[in-house]
């Protein structure tokens, strides 16, 4: 086939200009956003990413009925089956690569690969399904991955004092826990900045 005469004018031009890594970037850090099904991981990555996020959402089917716990998220029609990916520049030199994990327990085996090389994690929780967070936090503690906890704001979710949630989740006093709205860029960015400060404090403590 003579491609010079092809009527197909589509060409691959590479990444969009806004997706190109800034030339000032000197260091990159991998951060994982974890949590149960429907807690807002894809939403957080999408709200804060400075590039068009990569998602692996697929339409939910009847095969998941009786298998997946979608309490509180009955209106969801799609779910992450592999990962979400985004990027945010904390400063001119520091870039965070964000990886959102699948929330359905049958896909949790994929977490092992996503945890590799991760400097830290954000645990998103939904107070309507707080029990799901126990296994999530347990997995991070087993792997020795430092994390912060962000309580996502859902309109019909019960509100509890932060310290009450800390006791319920059996978190150490040093682990940051805060309220957030994963739909808002500023709120999601604050969570990530809290994680960066926490990781820095752990580094200083080891010195």
Automatic annotation (TrEMBL):
UniProt key word Phosphoprotein: no
Gene3D superfamilies in alphabetical order: P-loop containing nucleotide triphosphate hydrolases
InterPro entries, per the entry: Gliding_Motility_GTPase, Gpn, P-loop_NTPase
SUPFAM superfamilies: P-loop containing nucleoside triphosphate hydrolases
Domain of life: Bacteria
Keywords in alphabetical order: GTP-binding, Hydrolase, Nucleotide-binding
CDD domains (UniProt xref): Ras_like_GTPase (cd00882)
Family: Belongs to the GPN-loop GTPase family.
Listed name of the protein: ATP/GTP-binding protein
Species this protein is from: Streptomyces atriruber
